[in-house]
Structures are given as C-alpha cells and as structure tokens.
Design goal:
Length: 255
C-alpha cells in the first residue's frame, strides 16, 4: 500500500512538472494590438456606413462614410447666415446660405485643420491605426489606482496633416481597453501641452463617446511624459471642458 501511495505521489509530481513546462509565458501585446483592441471595444466596426453628427460649442459637426475622414462638415448659424464648411477627400469648400463662396487660399488649410481636429478628438481611439501613425508602447502607468498601457503616437509627414510634428500620449485601461486619458504637445500658437480626462461616457449607435476635462501644466518645465503623475497629484490646472452635445450616429446606406 505504501508503495502505491509513493508511486501515485511520484506520478502526480511528474505530471505537475510537465504542466509547468508546457505553460507558455504571457504574450506581451504590441502598441498596435492594444490600439486595435481599444478601437474594437469603442465600437470601431460601427463607423462603417454611419452618419455621425454632434454639436460642439454651438457648432454642428457631421461626418459620414467608411472613413470619417472622407467627408466632414462644420455648420455655423448666426442671426443672418448659415455657413457650411465641407472637407471632402481633403478638398475644402464653403457654402454660405447654400451658395458656394470663395475662400482665400491662405485660409483653406486653417479651416480644414480645424474641422479635422474636432472630428479627430471626438472619435478617439478610432483612427489611431491609420498608416500615418507611429505607435510605441512606453512603460505601464498607474493613474487613479488603475493600471494602464501608456502609448506614444507620432505621425508621418505624409498623411499626418499640418500638425504631424505634434506628439500624443494615450492611456488605455489594461483590463477594459478603454482610452481614459490622453495628452499632447503642440507647436502652433506658441505651443504647449494638454492632458485630458474622459468622463460622461456614453454609447450612441454602437460607438463610445466621451467628454473631457482639459488640463494644462502650470510649470513650463514640465515634460509631456510627467503629466499623468501630476494629474494624480492634482497639480494640473483645469483649462476647459470638451463637451459633445446632441450626438447622433445612424446607418447611412448611401455613404
């Protein structure tokens, strides 16, 4: 009986060793894989054939198509005129009261960039897997007691827009893969840095939308990579709120 018990213990130990040997180390996700997961949980597939509209600071923004960059609009209305700016496949046109209006060449790029920027931030993380994106996984970070993947994004000059030299950071939850924070360093208008905290999360038409608390550092010596730590210590200054209103996302068979 004692021999049987010893034999059973030996076989159990061998089996345990074999199971341990077969267990492979956990695969480290790449920056691209993390971004793809974040886009998927944010409703990335719902962007295809969808018409999206929302109001931001009293202005209406519209996009439609398999890629929202194909067709974007901005509509401003005052007591006299309705101005509709259209960015279609990179070409900018302006209509005032639905009449085509000439715009100085020096201004078309500025208007186009403004339209693109609002849509870009509204749909994040969608678009972070485009060809012009260069994504790198940095050290993992903890923000407000939650663990995040910290990803740096830069853009190629070709396809990256006029602001291709700007640098972006994204904090993606390690469990849910939602993008809860972002930061960026810009160079226009004297340059600066911003840190945004997502809140008021809601899903419309299968797509995740968020508003943001928009912060800036008070110390000019601060680096972009320290903003999450400063945020956790309540050492950033609340500059503004980024709020989307009247969001609509509906199927568009003719997009």
């Amino acid at each position: 009986m004692k021999k049987i018990i010893l034999l059973f213990a030996f076989l159990t130990a061998v089996a345990s060793c074999k199971n341990t040997e077969k267990k492979e180390p956990e695969k480290q996700l790449t920056a691209g894989e993390i971004i793809d997961k974040s886009i998927a949980v944010s409703g990335g597939g719902s962007f295809a054939k969808t018409r999206i509209s929302f109001d931001f600071r009293g202005v209406t923004y519209i996009s439609e198509g398999n890629s929202w960059r194909n067709h974007m609009e901005r509509i401003k209305t005052d007591s006299v005129n309705t101005t509709r700016d259209v960015l279609h496949n990179g070409d900018f046109t302006r209509y005032v009261n639905e009449k085509l209006t000439k715009v100085a060449d020096s201004m078309t790029s500025r208007y186009a960039n403004s339209i693109n920027s609002v849509h870009y931030f509204a749909y994040l993380p969608y678009g972070l897997n485009s060809k012009a994106v260069n994504a790198a996984l940095l050290d993992e970070a903890t923000v407000k007691e939650k663990d995040y993947y910290k990803i740096k994004v830069t853009f190629d000059q070709e396809g990256g827009g006029d602001d291709f030299e700007d640098v972006y950071l994204y904090w993606i939850d390690k469990t849910s893969f939602t993008m809860d924070y972002l930061a960026y360093e810009f160079h226009v208008n004297g340059g600066g840095m911003r840190f945004r905290e997502a809140y008021n999360i809601r899903t419309v038409g299968g797509i995740r939308f968020a508003d943001y608390n928009n912060f800036k550092p008070s110390d000019e010596a601060t680096t972009l990579y320290d903003l999450d730590s400063l945020f956790g210590e309540d050492k950033l200054e609340l500059l503004s709120k980024i709020e989307l209103e009247n969001i609509s996302a509906t199927p568009c068979d003719t997009c």
